[in-house]
Predict the structure.
Amino acid sequence: MPASISTRRAFLTGRPMVETAVVYPPGVTEQSVLDCSGCGKCSEACPSKIIVMRSGLPTIDFDRGECTFCGTCAERCPERVFPPATATRFPHHAVIEDSCLAVNYVDCQACRDGCPADAIRFRPRRGGPFLPSLDADACTGCGACIGLCPTASISMRPVSREVAHV
């Protein structure tokens, strides 16, 4: 269920409103969110203040900050929306787009500096600043890099596992 979101950064950079997929709190699935009563206790309890109630359902807004996977939202939920064990990753990972400053020969490593999982590294490039390299397996999808990127060049993509052919 896509939601239309317009951020202050999008307005200031002249970017149009962006269609984004809805991201639920860690561990919450399309099925389990149907049990949500819309009480908002998870949103109130979130220490990062990234859980936002949209249409009566808890969603994540990474422009507000990152998920620390603390589990407070799950503890405060009176319904069966969250899994019994605290989730430690999202079913998506970060992707660095071509509009990245480093890709365009401007030195920037803000995403690397803010990544708690050390999933973003920079490798040397001849004749220019280091290039970002993301380890999708190490990325937890916490969103720490999104709010730090000055050009909004980081997005989230679903984790896809290729099936091995025998």
Notes: The radius of gyration is 17 Å. The helical segments are 8-13, 41-45, 72-76, 110-114, 144-148. The chain has a mean pLDDT of 87.
